[in-house]
């Protein structure tokens, strides 16, 4: 089918054959992943939307696509308004919309492997008000009409060395067994891909830019485990790495294994395990303990080996980014670059390090109006020429075996306007405000979010995304549970307590629709800090990312003396970390960029 209109029509015809009056299409997979493999890109295939969060609902005469404030512009560019109604969340939930639009007495289908049980309960309750039913499908109807749907990846698993992980898989499973004993539970189901990768010290290549493998797992109270994965993905090296205490079974055996846990007390995470998992446990007669996956927090608090590895990766990545920024500044004014060619060049600089395993996400290479789309994804169709008078925003990162990077910088092409410099400086002030925050143990990311927004708020400005997300250790570039954002922001809550050892991003921004975008992003590490005379245990942030912040975009008069001192000290660190990796011409360029702001 050549058009998205044809695909929508084909899905409606399939729903009619299955006696369904509607169907809900989320952007996730059976592991509730944010980034998914090509086989699970059902929302993108159906609608054309290329963002990383969204849901669609298809009814016989109506269709709606639900996105949050990060994608307000993007969804309108990529999804036809002749076929789809745009609905903003969280102002209107999918359940709310269904309660108003579903046919009375209708049957609305959903795939129980793609939704949480909480969502199912909410949607079922909303539909009941219309006399309609929510119906679980045995097979996803999109798959029946998606003729060239990619197959799931068959890439083999790769052991992740214990020296990089900082702890053996056996020790991690022993900790999980202790956790189970405290709760008098027999087993825990792990379905989040990054939890499985962390717990078993394995990595994979099944999801673009995220080194995880498609698998399920159960860890038992005796420290043994069952790993459910396609047999062709297991090598002798992986078997030896996993050891005799891990039983490897076919991925297809997972659902029957759930049903066989009759009488067992089984822990499962209601936020990360899909409804089908709970349904199978219920059907088999297990006693379900609904609690957070024990790996989530353990994975988020990095150990010394992971922290050291991240710092090494950041140093390598910083040198690659510096080389790119120098090249860009020298090349862009000629007017021959495009968003795509610039992104390709940046990737080439990272690949030249010899250490890059993958990008950590699709590079956001955005000039002019595309920079005002926070989660813009450049394509051959959307790629714009980079022209004088514009701001170029590049948000990018790499996956290295010792760390995961994510950094955003903005470069002017030619002379920036006063407005551009003013907005950039206010974003920088917010970035510094968060970078220098000192806060007591027990503080949440929501409590710190305003530190980054205040300089914008003071002149009536703001940005429509979170200020910081968690980051993995050679893992997902977006890792929970920690966040820095307003308490209930699009994408999730930010009420997790920040703990020493957590990685987060610091990325305030400003976006002028149709003209330009600004974001300054570094990764930070939560560290303990001693305050002379203080009475409370305190925490602070250590900056991990090292690349110059463009000085021609800064209005020095807007910076306070402490802000100038921070910027000068940061640039001195950039020069110390990155400078030794550069040739003389590159180092001279960096020295000029890192000179005191004056």
Description:
InterPro entries: Creatin/AminoP/Spt16_N, Creatinase/aminopeptidase-like, Creatinase_N, Pept_M24, Pept_M24B, Peptidase_M24_C, X-Pro_aminopeptidase_P. GO terms for molecular function: metal ion binding; metalloaminopeptidase activity. It comes from Sphingomonas hengshuiensis. Residues 311-526 form the Peptidase M24 domain. The protein has 598 residues and is α+β, with helices and mostly antiparallel strands. It has three domains: 4-145, 3-Layer(aba) Sandwich (Creatine Amidinohydrolase, Chain A, domain 1); 158-299, Creatine Amidinohydrolase, Chain A, domain 1 (3-Layer(aba) Sandwich); 302-590, Creatine Amidinohydrolase. Helices cover 35% and strands 20% of the residues. The strands form nine sheets. The chain has a six-stranded mixed beta sheet. Strands 12-11-10-8-13-14 form a six-stranded mixed beta sheet. Strands 21-30-29-26 form a four-stranded antiparallel beta sheet. Strand 29 (522-529) and strand 30 form a beta hairpin. The longest helix has 28 residues, at 304-331. The mean pLDDT is 96.
